[in-house]
Amino acid sequence: MGTTKTRERIVESAYKCFSEKGYIGTTTKEISKLAGISEVTLFRYFKSKKELFEEVLNKFSVLPDIEKIKTEKSLSIEKKLEKVAEEIIRSLKEKKNFIKILLSEISPHSEEVSEIYREFISRLDSIIAEILSSDKETARLFHSSLFGYFLSEEIFLESEIDEKKLEKIVKKLVELFTEKRGEEK
C-alpha cells in the first residue's frame, strides 16, 4: 500500500475516532486498529496524537475552503464574506457530533487540546482578516458570531439551521460587518 494512502487512512480513522470519543477519549491504538495498521506504523507517519489531531483539523476543517474563497478575485468583499459564513455554518452542521465532543473536552486540564484550538482560531482569524482587510479582532467577531449562532440554534435549542435560515442570517451578518465600511467611503 502506498505511503499517501496509508497516511490518508490514518487521518480518516483518527477523524472517525475523535468524532466518536473526542481527543482525550481516543487512543492511538484504537486509531491504528481502525486504520488496519500497527501502532508502530502510525507513529512512523505522526510523531504524536497531538500532531495527528492537528492534521485531522487541517483536513476536515473549513480552513482549506475559506482559503480558496479568499483568493477568488472576481468576488466582492460582501460575496466573499457570505460564502465564508455559509461554509462555516455548513461545516459546523456537518461536524455537529465532533463539535459537541470537542466542546466537552475544553477545560483547564486539557492544555494540549486548547493549544491546538488556539492555533486553529488564529489561522481562521488571519484568513478572515485578509478578506475583510481588517484586524484579527474584527475577524474573530465575525466567525464567533457564526459559531455562537450555531451553538444557540443547533446545540442548545436543537433547532436546525435550514438553507432559508442560513441565507437570512448570513445576509444580516455580512451587512453588519460591511455597513461601517460603506460609511467610511
UniProtKB/TrEMBL annotation:
Pfam family, one: TetR_N
Domain HTH tetR-type: 4-64
Name of the featured protein: TetR family transcriptional regulator
SUPFAM superfamilies: Homeodomain-like
The keyword DNA-binding is annotated on this UniProt entry: yes
Presence of the UniProt keyword DNA-binding in the record: yes
Record-level Gene Ontology MF annotations: DNA binding
Record keywords: DNA-binding
DNA-binding annotation, residue ranges on this chain: 27-46
Lineage: Bacteria, Pseudomonadati, Aquificota, Aquificia, Desulfurobacteriales
